[in-house]
Amino acid sequence: MPSITADLLAILALIGAALTIEVVRLRRSGQVIFNGGILLALGLAIACAIPLLSHLPWAELAEEVSDQAVAAAQLLYAAYVILTL
């Protein structure tokens, strides 16, 4: 199951990168950014993500995110203390 989740996350990342490139191209050419094609692609990406979201271990994911947030806050505090010495 984890390999399927990783594959779907990789596909969603590629879709997001393609949409970003398309938005940049449209913005540079002066066209409307949210035309029908981009909205359709975004809707399809969300539809592909819905089955993926139901298989994620949310409790473990939330715990990991909170651990990372605490570690980042501690790192910023240590950098602040060092810079203010």
Please describe what this structure looks like.
- The structure is a single chain.
- α1 (2-29) packs antiparallel against α2.
- The mean pLDDT is 75.
- This protein starts with a helix and ends with a helix.
- The protein is flat and about 55 Å long.
- It has 85 residues and is an all-alpha fold.
- The chain has helices spanning 2-29, 36-55, 58-83.
- The longest helix is centred in the first third of the chain and has 28 residues, at 2-29.
Give the helices and strands, then pairings.
Blueprint: H1 2-29, H2 36-55, H3 58-83
Q: Helicity level, as a percent range?
A: over 70%
Number of domains: 1
C-alpha termini separation: 50 Å
Q: DSSP helix count? A: 3
Q: What about the largest sheet?
A: none
| β-strand amount | under 5%
Query: What is the H/E order?
Result: HHH
The chain-level structural class is: mainly alpha
Number of strands: 0
| Assembly state (oligomeric) | single chain
Please tell me how large the radius of gyration is. 19 Å
Mean pLDDT: 75
Question: Runs with pLDDT <50, length 5+?
Answer: none
**General shape:** flat
What is the compact description of this entry?
With 85 residues, the chain is an all-alpha fold. It contains three helices and no strands.
